[in-house]
Amino acid sequence: MEVELKELLSDLHSLKKSISDPSHLALIEKMHLHAENIATLEKSGTARRSKVKDMSAEVVDSNPYSRLMALQRMGIVNNYERIREFSVAIVGIGGVGSVAAEMLTRCGIGRLLLYDYDKVELANMNRLFFRPEQVGMTKTDAAVQTLSEINPDVVLESYTLNITTVEGFDTFMSSLTNKSFQPTKSGSGVDLVLSCVDNYEARMVVNQACNELNQTWMESGVSEDAVSGHIQLLIPGETACFACVPPLVVASGIDERTLKREGVCAASLPTTMGVVAGLLVQNTLKYLLKFGQVSRYLGYNALKDYFPTMEMKPNSQCSNAACLERQKEYILAKPTRDAAAKAKADIEALSPAENPVHADNEWNISVVDDEEVDGSDVKISGVLPEGIVHELPVADEYPKPPVTETVGPADDLEELRRQLEALNAD
Question: What InterPro entries does the record point to (predicted)?
Answer without folding.
Answer: D-isomer_DH_CS1, ThiF/MoeB/HesA, ThiF_NAD_FAD-bd, Ubiquitin-activating_enz
